[in-house]
Amino acid sequence: METMKKTNQTSRILRELRDKRFVTNIDLNKICYRYGARIHELRKEGWNIQREYERPGVYRYWLVPERDYADTY
Fold first, then answer.
1. pLDDT 10s per residue in the chain (73 long)?
2. Is residue 17 within 8 Å of residue 23, measured between CB atoms?
3. Is pTM, for the whole model, over 0.85?
């Protein structure tokens, strides 16, 4: 059951990152409290997720599109 919950949460976070230009830690916290662990899992799978400080207590996350990788080669 725990693995299924993690998978569902990870999928929801990835969907949010794909659908929106960026999401904040406040948005991700509504999906799950341990969003940092889910972001870590996605990064281990190869997703390029960036983070930027916005203001005290708020960070912005976004997914770097794959086409940006190709531009660097």
1. 456 666 899 999 999 999 999 999 999 999 999 999 999 999 999 999 999 999 999 999 999 987 655 555 4
2. yes
3. no
